[in-house]
Amino acid sequence: MKTRSVLLLGSLSAALVAFALTSPRVVAADKVDPVTDAKAFQNFFFQKFPDVKHEDFVNGPYSMNEDLKRQWQEKEEFPPYEFALEAGKEMFSTPFKNGKTYADCFPNGGIGIRQNYPYFDEKEGKVVTLELALNRCREANGEAPYSYVKDEMASLTAYMAYTSRGKLMDIKIPDDPRALAAYENGKRYFYTRRGQMNFSCASCHVQSPGERIRAEILAPALGIVNAMPIYRSEWSGMGTTSRRFVTCNSQTRAVPLEPQADEYRDVEYFLSYVANGLPISGPGARP
């Protein structure tokens, strides 16, 4: 753990200076300006890693290291998430007890829509993630909700993500002050330090992508949600976006929030919006 802290803190000052110079509005915006935020956010990574193709950022640590990328490409011939894809496809098409299916709850029958989630629901006044929408669909049809962090939910979202592979992330922020507030809240959560290690999400995924924490190479924040859900060797199984947020909080010794808490939904909204224009690559696999 001491090695981890030294590694990250050693690069902190230089990274902060570089990020402040390239994207000042993201760090200290004086007004909510998502369009400018997204452009600055993406440019920061494009300039920091000029040899990485823009669309490759969605492949996380594999875009940062050639040896790791070759290993991953070989693994993709028999991907570890394949079992989840098959299970998710079967679950998606299996009718509920009332005869309806998930397709009845989503536009385009739920196929090829991952790139539009999360979205801001103007009637509710809050961000709605794909995981939340799936459980609401189940409950509206008399079924019990699934766990938000793994197993069935991961399989369902894996299948839905797979039907959107290659489609470009396309998150909207409507002209609604509540939507702007949700985006800003997500951005604030992303950059706020917390926990015993006093880390923010940005400490690892903006300041130190490509660097190692023990055997793990840190992923860039840009495109990090495009690969969700993911199979992680560390988990020996699949996990959802909710599970990833909970795990990140735990790893920095912060108190995790409840899955689908407003803050998690808002930070997913922020990360998805700044990844607009990059392809969906989920389900993904990570070390």
TrEMBL record:
Task: Report residues binding heme c 2.
Answer: 201, 204-205, 248
Q: How is the cofactor bound?
A: Binds 2 heme groups per subunit.
Listed GO biological process terms: sulfur oxidation
| Residues that bind heme c 1 | 105, 137
Ordered alphabetically, the record's keywords are: Electron transport, Heme, Iron, Metal-binding, Periplasm, Signal, Transferase, Transport
Where does this one sit in the cell?
Answer: Periplasm
The signal peptide, as residue positions, is 1-20
Q: Which GO terms describe its molecular function?
A: electron transfer activity; heme binding; metal ion binding; oxidoreductase activity, acting on a sulfur group of donors, cytochrome as acceptor; transferase activity
Enzyme kind, highest EC tier = transferase
State where substrate binds: 244
Q: Which Gene3D superfamilies match?
A: Cytochrome c-like domain
Q: Give its E.C. classification number.
A: 2.8.5.2
User: Where do the catalytic residues lie?
Assistant: 248
Domain Cytochrome c positions: 181-287
Chief location bin: periplasm
- Decide whether keyword Membrane is in the record: no
Q: Which SUPFAM superfamilies match?
A: Cytochrome c
Q: Is Glycoprotein tagged as a keyword?
A: no
A GO CC annotation given for this chain? cytochrome complex
Reaction catalysis annotation: S-sulfanyl-L-cysteinyl-[SoxY protein] + thiosulfate + 2 Fe(III)-[cytochrome c] = S-(2-sulfodisulfanyl)-L-cysteinyl-[SoxY protein] + 2 Fe(II)-[cytochrome c] + 2 H(+); L-cysteinyl-[SoxY protein] + thiosulfate + 2 Fe(III)-[cytochrome c] = S-sulfosulfanyl-L-cysteinyl-[SoxY protein] + 2 Fe(II)-[cytochrome c] + 2 H(+)
Cofactor(s) needed, names only, are: heme
Family per UniProt?
Belongs to the SoxA family.
Under the subunit heading, UniProt states:
Heterodimer of SoxA and SoxX.
Alphabetized NCBIfam families for the sequence:
thiosulf_SoxA
Name of this protein: SoxAX cytochrome complex subunit A
Native organism taxonomy:
Bacteria, Pseudomonadati, Pseudomonadota, Alphaproteobacteria, Hyphomicrobiales
